[in-house]
Amino acid sequence: MGREISEIRLDCVDVTCPLPLPPSARIHLACRRFTAALTLAVAACGGAHDKASPARSGARPAPSYVAHTLAGDTVALASLRGKVVVLNVWATWCEPCREEIPQLEALHRAYADSGLVMVGVSVDDAGSAGDVRSFARDHGVTYALWLDPDKRFAMQFLTVGVPETFLVDRDGVIGFRKIGALAHGDTSLAAAIRAALVR
Fold first, then answer.
1. Which of 46, 141, 178, 183 could form a disulfide with 136 if both were Cys (CB 3.0 to 4.6 A apart)?
2. Domain total of the chain
């Protein structure tokens, strides 16, 4: 188990915080880095953490997150309450993000008719909507894409980098979290989706 944690792709960790950072954001980033390092250390000592974690008794409600669509409209996660939502935070320049997109697209196509809402949250810089739109076209992305150039997702969901994936259940509770890209053949997210859809 410790070996799995040590292999999390961390090459994109720092990208969720634009520069220059205000003091509060620098402190927040330092806390996230400490938490990530502590998690890795515990896992290396035989801890029971895993990269993909289903909900436990301490499951928490999803933050009141707001972003923008590619069309420039404001969209709130709360507007999807009552649906099963997968949020994948990513960036066009993040190679691990690119590698997992076919799996996310396949899950979207497989479960959209059953009520799943798949959302890709881009943390590309402001003014990148055209790049994100072109990327989606070139890579066959048909699920919803939201823009978050201010990296609010990272601050509200306490992410350690990109990509990360969250499943929010019908009650607005985070039921699954995956740090790093989905590996080929990883069925943990699909299993979490199926379980959430039947509730």
1. 141
2. 1
**Distances 102 to 2, 39, 108, 137 between C-alpha atoms, Å:** 28, 29, 10, 13
pTM: 0.74
Give 118-177 pLDDT, tens digit per residue.
Answer: 999 999 999 999 999 999 999 999 999 999 999 999 999 999 999 999 999 999 999 999
- Nearest CA-CA partner of 187 in 128, 103, 80, 130: 103
183 is written with which tokens? 């590996």
Question: Which one, of 198, 168, 195, lies nearest residue 84 by Cα?
Answer: 168
Q: Can you say whether the dihedral through the CA atoms of 117, 155, 130, 73 is positive or negative? A: positive
Question: ∠ at Cα 104 (100, 106), nearest 5°?
Answer: 115
Distance separating alpha carbons of residues 150 and 66, to the nearest angstrom: 11
CATH of the domain at 113: 3.40.30.10
Cβ-count burial of 194 within 10 angstroms (0-12 exposed, 13-18 middle, 19+ buried)? middle
Contacts 24+ apart (CB under 8 A), 29-35: 32/158, 32/159, 32/160, 33/160, 35/158, 35/160
